[in-house]
Structure formats: structure tokens, C-alpha cells
Amino acid sequence: MNRAWILCRRELGSYFSTPLAYVFIVIFLLMSNLFTFSLGGFYEVGQADLLPFFTYHPWLYLFLIPAIGMRLWAEERKSGTIELLLTLPLRLGEAVLGKFLAAWLFTGIALALTFPIWLTVNFLGEPDNGVVVASYLGSWLMAGAFLAIGSCMSAVSANQVVAFILSLVTCFVFVVSGFPLVLDFFESWAPVALVDAIAALSFITHFNAISRGVLDLSDLLFFVLMISGWLLATAIVIELKKSQAA
Asked: Is residue 5 part of a domain?
């Protein structure tokens, strides 16, 4: 774990050594404010809460998180540095975890920089700050699930554009799986157990539950298992690619 943390710190530092990190943060903050105050009608709602802010997070992450995840392994494979990385005294699992944690912490920094919106709602009213904290936690966990999928898709392809598209499509499936339109399609022919299983895979369903301030263990466990499962899949894909190249 210590070696994974060392790699995490190195990777996190590399994010801020290029202008791309700052561009991403600026875009994230601008889009967050746009969705909150313009599309979300923050002032028009007349309620002291951050529901207009968090409602659009799944859709914001759908496009921005794959842009971070696509470079995790695709760039390493394209430049040939993945062989060097895997020859270090570092287990494959530690490498996967370290690179993921760096990207997740970077996303967390971008999310934390939205705190002026939180200050604004406290200035205008008296929100339930416990619900806000729960919503931030849920948002970060959901971002981690998006990133874990992006990590796996990045390991699949050495082309970052292909990795981005694969991540976008896969994440989109998990976002909309709980929508009535999708469930109605399956209800016409699939058994109830399968329909319920598909509905349970929706990121929005679990995130909305957390953003209401209800920290149910099943919702937290869902995102933890999603992250763990996709990171395990990342390690398996890298191992398979390594075996094929040998």
C-alpha cells in the first residue's frame, strides 16, 4: 500500500505539471456554475439547498471523467513506459491502485474547489449542511466509479480517443439503466429479477439516495464494489495484454 501511495503522489504531481489539469479544473468549475445557476434555476427555486448543484453531477461526470481516465493506461502503452512501470518493485495491483487514487484525488480537488457554492447557499439561507456533506461524499464516490470504468477502458486500448469513447458509452449505460424508458423496454419480455437488477445498477439511483442525506450502506457499498470491480478488471486486462506481448 505504501508503494501505491508513492506512485499516487508522483502521478498526482504530474497532473499539475501540465496546463491540462488547470484547464480541466476551470472547465469543471464553469460547467458546475452554469448547471447550478442557469439550468438548475438556483435562485428561482427559492430553497436553501444544493439540489440544483448536485442534480447535474452524473451528466457532468459523464463527459469530464472519461477525459481524465482515458490517459491512465492508454498513454503509458502508447509511449511504451508501461513496460518500465511494471518492471519497478511494484505489484500490478499497487500500480493500478496508485494511478487510480491520483486521478480520484485530482477529481476530489476539483470538486472541493466548488465550495463557494456551498458558502453561497449558507449566506442566502440555512441549509442542512449534513445533507450537503453527504452529497459531496456521494458525488466523489460516484466520480470514483466513473474513473474506475475509465481506467479499465484505458487499459483496453492504447488510443486515448478510443478509450474515451468506450468509457463514455459504458458510463452512459450505468447512468441511464434506472430510467423508466430503459426499464419499460426490459419489462415487456424480461423477468422481474432481471429488471430489478438493471435498475439497481443505475448510478443516479444510488447517488440520489445519498444526496438526500440518507447514507444507506447499500448505496455506499454499491460504489465501493463498482470501484473495486472495475479496478480488478483493469489489472486483469493489463495482465492479459502483457501476456499477449510476451
From this structure: no
